[in-house]
Amino acid sequence: MTKTPESSSAASAASPRFLPLLLLLFIGSGCAALIYEIVWFQLLQLVIGSSAISLGVLLGTFMGGMCVGSLFLSRIISSRPHPLRVYAFLELGIGALGLLIIWGMPLFSRAYIVLGGPGLSGLLLRGLFAGICLLPPTLLMGATLPAIARWVETTPRGVSWLGFFYGGNTAGAVLGCLLAGFYLLRVHDVFIATYAAVALNVTVAAAGLALARFTSHAPPAEVARATSVAAAPGAALVYVTIALSGMSALGAEVVWTRLLTLMLGATTYTFSIILAVFLMGIGLGSSIGSYASRHLERPRAALGLAQLCLVAAVAWTAWNVAKALPFWPVNPELASTPWVQFQVDLARTMWAVLPAAVLWGASFPLALASVARPGQDPGRLVGRVYAANTVGAIVGSLGFALLVVPAIGTQYAQRALVALAVVAALLMLGPVLSAESNRLRLTARGATVGVAVLVLGGLGAWSIAPIPALLVAYGRFSAPRFYNHGDFIYWGEGMSSSPAVSRLSNGVLNYHNAGKVQASSEPQDMRLQRMLGHLTTLVSQNPRSVLVIGCGAGVTAGAVSISPRVERLTVAEIEPLVPQVVSEYFGEHNYNVVRNPKTRVVIDDARHYLLTTDEKFDAITSDPFDPWVKGAATLYTREFWDLVKRHLNPGGVVTVFVQLYESGTPAVKSEIATFLEAFPNGIVWGNTYQGSGYDLVLLGQVEPTRINVDEMEQRLAGPEFGLVRQSLSEIGFYSVTDLLSTFASQGAMLQPWLADAEINTDRNLRLQYLAGLGLNKYEQATIYSDILRLRRYPEGLFVGSPERLQALRSALAFGQ
Question: Nearest-5° angle of CA 260, CA 770, CA 335?
């Protein structure tokens, strides 16, 4: 039964015993929020793309909604309702909107596809679409802490509990991050993950409503008077300081996530580990800061010292990432299971990141204590501090991701983080509160402290070294390749990734991205890249217009470009540095494809480009990042292949590269089975190295594929195909028979082997989880032999003269 106003005093005196229960509720709320964030980002990236700009739009919208919600709750929602009831209904609203988003995403997607496009209008539409989907629930998420804050008083003890609530919410976020990344999405899909989050919202709301029945709330008149309390002296400087703290925290997360994923491998598991460690540190720091704020007489000075300590913490992380961790004697190939490697990755991430994350976490409760005054409306107090912190976080995440890192690189970006910490420390440690005027003023002592802060900041910034080219190029294999990496002739840090080019002592060129070799002039790699390009144009009956997904070293696109039948070549590449710089180094091998008048380079996520263009192609070939790289699996889903089919002209051909090395059998099965669901008669071509399987090319058509061997031979014999013949001969194919003898299997033949394959869909993105577990496996020989074991001559696939067909049959029987 709800207590009457007359009993509120007794209830208020007893309410602190319920505060630990609220901490549990905030843990559940934070867990649900992170599950939603991961699910929503995964879903929305399928629609608006996974380019740096699209990710910036998503993150800015998500955090912007939380900022507005925290700031305006106390202005919109009356103080009369019990805070626990307000909190409970906010949780129910978040759950309802979570269901609406997951159920309504197909409708939202269709609307965006109809209206979306390139340029400024397309960017504005991405922001509008993200806002429609994310703003309503994030407004409610941001309002939860200010709502419950009205149930505590702005005494030092009460304010410390607000910090504990923030820490509990962050601890829940750690659980949600790990639960979603390692279980819900790996084993189930976005719907199950959403339902789990909704269940948490409902549980938290039910508990909040139950607690509201046994507790009371201060009379509204008291709250109304509390809003007129004057702000603490220097409150504006505290708001600026906590904004700078948020800016440096999210800027650091952008920079360090980028560097750590190079070192650990850019799998979805790695991203989960890094985010979990960041959140773990923030939650731990918030708890420490909350406890300390109860006993501090000068919380402003403590806040300033935390910012000053961040100078050393940022320098510590920068030193570890550039000088120490990449060269620890860790060889991921030696891990018995991926779960053992995850433990090593977790330990390295905690070693590097936790000190700074703890300090950022402690800053929030210290800022609350610095501006709190008795009698204030705690909802407005928390809302303002939270909003200031979130505004800084938005500026930091977007600014560092889209501007700072691409413009000046991670070394100077980390020096900028030090500068932000120095400014924040100066704001708190320089001005001194005057006892006579109750105002802040700068004294000689404050000026001395300021000089010391500047000196320490300068030393911290000077100590930050550039990121080593070895880490950019070889990532998790930096230590094993320390003495055998060749000469680095280029490395850069772009908007979406960090590419590099190296030259070995034997003259071989390597193109590196995502911390590994993505393409090279090694014979086996050249063979694959040119096979991908030439099969695309030779099998297609009339390949006038071709789309190449992924520029890379440009060798595949170059093989396409030299076909005299190709009139227009479109290359979709997500990182601007790749076609601008990297492909130039491989000009001898890619026929200077980027400079070819036929070529048009589109800087966009390939999936987003296909979703928003009406253009159709006679052939599409895809050579994206390895499927274990987070986000790459979106270019291997059943829905993506259906999208590709809609953009093929009649008789069109689609090809895709499938790697066998650094991949487990389940991942390869998923790639092939998913492709064959869209193209049931799809063909598998094999590229071998030293007699064993190395990688594959999958080829599919909407119509049944018929390859006329005679026509292909006659075509290649023409003088206009001289460059194509030369290109094929350089990789060991001296005739059409040589090329077609790489046939490894066709749709129906593989069904027994694929019986247990998991289909990769937009709903589960199963491939990125399977591939992430097989990152350090080398099962290529076994996988390829299993495929060949089921191979038989494909009756009806090849047509032509009996002599040529017999020659091909013999090559298949006794060749590969």
Answer: 60
Domain boundaries 234-480, corresponding CATH code: 1.20.1250
Structure confidence by residue, pLDDT tens digits, 227-248 = 455 556 678 889 999 999 999 9
Query: 785-794: buried (b, 16+ CB within 10 Å) or exposed (e) per residue?
Result: ebbeebbeeb
d(CA 421, CA 423): 6
Q: Give yes or no for a contact between 256 and 317, defined as CB atoms under 8 angstroms apart.
A: yes
Which helix (H) or strand (E) segment holds residue 491: the answer is strand 487-491
Q: Which amino acid is at 402?
A: L
Per-residue CA distances from 652 to 203, 547, 635, 640 (Å): 53, 11, 18, 16
Q: Where are the domains of the chain?
A: 1-218, 234-480, 521-814
Cβ(374)–Cβ(71) below 8 Å: no
In 3D space, the residue among 295, 258, 455, 288 whose CA is nearest the CA of residue 360 turns out to be 288
1-218 placed in CATH 1.20.1250: yes
Q: Cα(787)–Cα(456) distance, rounded to whole angstroms?
A: 62
Q: Is the pLDDT of residue 77 over 80?
A: no
- Of 464, 428, 170, 478, nearest to 303 by C-alpha is 428
Confidence of residue 816 (pLDDT cuts 50, 70, 90): very low
The C-alpha atoms of residue 237 and residue 370 are separated, in whole angstroms, by 10
DSSP, residue by residue, 314-374: HHHHHHIIIIIGGGSS--GGG-SSHHHHHHHHHHHHHHHHHHHHHHHHHHHHHHHHHH--T
Query: Is-same-fold flag (1-218; 234-480)?
Result: yes
Torsion of CA 542, 548, 552, 553, to 10 degrees: 20
Backbone angles phi, psi at 567, to 5 degrees: -105, -35
Residue with tokens 């077609």: 740
- Of the options 1.25.40.20, 3.40.950.10, 3.90.1010.10, 3.40.50.150, the CATH number for the domain spanning 521-814: 3.40.50.150
Residue with tokens 């936790």: 354
703-725 confidence digits (pLDDT tens): 999 999 999 999 999 899 999 99
Nearest partner of 695 among 729, 735, 728, 655, judged by Cα: 655
Name the CA dihedral angle for 380, 382, 387, 390, rounded to a multiple of 10 degrees.
-170
Q: Residues 469-499: pLDDT tens digits?
A: 999 999 999 988 888 888 999 999 988 889 9
High-pLDDT (> 90) share of the chain, %: 53
> For the chain, what is the total number of helices (H) and then of strands (E)?
31, 16
Tell me the C-alpha distance between 369 and 158, whole Å: 10
Burial of residue 103, with CB atoms counted within 10 A of its CB: 0-12 exposed, 13-18 middle, 19 or more buried: exposed
Whole-number pLDDT of residue 194: 95
Give the three-class secondary structure for 572: strand
With H, G, I as helix, E, B as strand and everything else as coil, classify residue 688: strand
pLDDT of residue 7: 38
Give pTM, 2 decimals.
Answer: 0.90
CA nearest to 51, candidates 760, 606, 620, 761: 606
pLDDT at 32 exceeding the cut of 90: yes
- Site of tokens 């294999």: 477
Residue with tokens 């080829």: 699
Contacts (Cβ under 8 Å, ≥6 apart) of 379 = 73, 74, 79, 83, 146, 147, 149, 150
